[in-house]
Amino acid sequence: MLAGLGLGVVRLFAPPSLTKELLYAVFLPGLLFEAAFHIDFHDFWRERTALVALAVPGVAASVALTAAVLEPTLQALELGQGFGWQHAVVFGALIAATDPIAVVMVFKSVGAPRRLSVLLEGESLLNDGTAIVVFSLVLGLVSGGGLSATGLVVEFGRIVGGGLVVGIVVGLGISQVIRQIDDPMIEITSTTVAAYGSFLAAERLGFSGVIATVSAGMLCGNYAARTGMSPSTRIAVESFWEYVAFALNSIVFLLVGLSVRIGELARSWQLILVAYAAVTVARAVVVFGVSMLERGRGGEGWPPSWRAVLTWGGMRGSLSMVLALGLPPALAHRNLLITVTFGVVLLSILLQGMTMLPLLQRLGVVRGRDARMKYEIQRGALRMTQAALDEIAKMQRQQVASPMVLGEVRSEYETRSVEAAARVEALQLEQHELRAEESVRVHRQALLAEKEALLAELHLGALSTEAHGALLADVDARLASLLEGSKLSGDVQESRAPGARNTRKGPEA
Length: 509
Description:
- By secondary structure, this protein is an all-alpha fold.
- It has helices spanning about 1-10, 20-35, 40-45, 50-55, 55-75, 85-95, 100-110, 115-140, 150-180, 185-205, 210-225, 230-260, 260-265, 270-295, 305-310, 320-325, 335-365, 370-400, 405-430, 430-460, 465-495.
- The protein has 2 domains: about 1-365, Na+/H+ antiporter like fold (Up-down Bundle), CATH 1.20.1530.20; about 370-509, no CATH class.
- The protein is globular.
């Protein structure tokens, strides 16, 4: 994002425009499919009430609240002359979709609670689709469309329901294809067809392409991957989509930065700040309301720290900018709406994205952060002393100093090594999850070493292609089992965390 802003200022080249066609044809299907492919359906279903509440009535409430806060505030401050309620509603609709990509990456890197990650990412998957539909309906209504309130609800149900059906049909079809073959390249291609084909088919039929791609991605990730993919193929498919998502995210944020005009934002800074405050207030009200709904259903609701994280994690991104750029040229205050939207997105990404980690640490949401830091320091100290002992052994072989001096220094480092090893062991015993993570890391490194040895044997001609394939499949099966076991262990730790509800029953728990 910052690189894009810098390139946009110096204007070294004419950048490609971030258009609706480009976003829909290239970026959105791939990003949505990758996120849906990695969402565990059981986690998603467990939080279904909260996710649907955030993504459907929550989006509608966010639009209304944003407009209700923005319009009278602008009038009171005498900003945005002629900017009426209809323009405030349009702005609320196009800014409603959340884009917590940066936040989810922070969650993964610091070990945030899994349930919190599912809430934030699952909501984003759903509200992208609902926000686009709501925006289209609101724009039609403001532009003089003849739909009544009942008609709006019916049309919303038709677009979302149709997208869901298309996604299920495409996802099931591709899943059956995957179950009949065992070729990583073909199966990667099949998932690509599911991602972009479901989106294109739904859009051509007048339904929601976003909902179609999300449902197809969840089917491929939970049904096809588990019943039709071998461990080797599944690892290959997941690696492919992880890279695709990384590349698409990088490019889309770069294009967002290139699309921003700093001069126009500076002229409207007061309006942008008011709009950003309205969006944030609306987000906080929606999150608090859904939390109370969860409590009313007999649950514990969300702790205040989670509500703060969910509010601050509701960033806005490229989808809002593209919707703004797609506003009809005849719409009054179109340029002002685009400028305000770009400013709010810029503030959201830079301010919220860059302060999420300190917020998580300040609120104590990240489990065992202090213990983890101590553990990493002691483990680093152990590695340092071991490196020093290796160097001393090398100097002894080369006789670069007297044996007495080398012996004294070696004795000193051996003492430090024993003490560091004892501290590492003590921290592992105190924090069981640290020991579990260490075990997974060591097992994974050993399995990767096995794969490297297999590849070397194949290149030397000591293994035939068939034998290599059989042995590789065994290693990949153990690697997949290891990763699945570590994920389940994380779920169990989450269920034991304070404030978390253990909703699993029977053997699964």
